[in-house]
Fold:
Amino acid sequence: MNKQFDYLVFIGRFQPFHIGHKQVIDRALQLADKVIIVIGSAYKPRDPKNPWTAHERSAMILNCDYGGQEKRIKVTQVRDQIYNDQKWAMSVQDAVMTATLNDGWTNMPPKIGLIGHDKDETSFYLKMFPQWGDVIEHEMNEEVNATDLRTLYFEVKNSKYLQSLLPFSVYDFVVRFRDTPDYARLVKEYQVIKKYKKSWEAAPYAPVFMTADAVVIQSGHVLLVERKAAPGAGLMALPGGFVNQFERIEVAAIRELREETKLKVPEPVIRGSIRRSKVFDAPNRSLRGRTITQAFLIELPPGPLPKVKGSDDAKRAVWVPLSDVKSEQMFDDHFDIIHYFLGTL
Structure:
C-alpha cells in the first residue's frame, strides 16, 4: 500500500525521548515509507537542559520498539545556529537530503513532509520549510513535557511517574546514567542554577542581566578561559562577566578581560584594538536566566602571543588556535559569538 509521503521529517531535541515523541514517530510510520529524525542541539557540552549527547539520544530513539519497523527510521543530527536561523535551516535541509541519498532517487525527487506540533513561539522552525508543504500536525499529550521530566530526573522525585512517561529502554538508560560522574556533575549544576534563580523570585519583574565579553584575536588564536565554578565548570569561555551598576559596558569588558587573564597588553592598546561590538540576546542563551551580553572584538596586531594567566573566576587562561575551538567544549553561546565575529573579519 502506497504511503502519503516518501519521507516524514521529525525535528526535536529529545531531552529525553519520551512517549509523546514515540507517538509522533508511530504516526509518521503510518503516513510515510520512511521517517527521518533530526536531532537538534548536537555538539554541545552536557548541561541540565541538554544532559545527553546526540549519539545517546539517537540510541534512545532507535532502541525503542516500533513493531519491527525500525529499519524505516533514519536518524541524523544538526548543531544549533542560534544567531543564524537561515544557516540552521540549511543544515537541516542538507541533513535530510543526505539521509535520502542511498535510496535511489535519481529520476524524480522524493515527496517529503514535516510532522510536529506548533505549541508556542519556540515552534517557529516548523514554518521554515515551505518546500515540504503544510506541517502534519500531531499534538502531544499535555502531561508529557521534557522540561518537567528533567526536573523529576535531577530531583529524583516520583520515579514511577517518570517511568510511565518514558519508553522502557529510555527509562533503563537514564536510570543507569545516574551512576555516572556526568550525572553527579549535572545535578550539582542543576542545584546551583536553581538556587541562583530562587534568589530572584521575590523581584517584582523577572530580572534581565547584562554582561560583557571580550573576543580577543591574535595571529590565528583566540583568548579563552576555563571556568572555575558552576555553571559550566571546566568548560572554555570568553573572558567576561557581569556589568557593574555604574559601569559602561566597554569598560566592563576590558576590566573582566584583565581580571580573568592578566593579559600582558597595556589597556590603551586593548581599547585601541577594539574593531567592533555586537549585542547577543538569544532569550535562552544562558541557563541562569535572561542574560544579554555585549561582546567586543579585540584584534591585536600579528606577532608573539602575549603571556596570560588565569585569575578571578578563571581556572586558567590560554590562547587557542581558532581551528581547535570546538562547540562541545564551549560555555553557553560563546562558540556562536566567536564564529559571528570570524565572519566579519
In short: The longest helix spans residues 181-198. The mean pLDDT is 93.
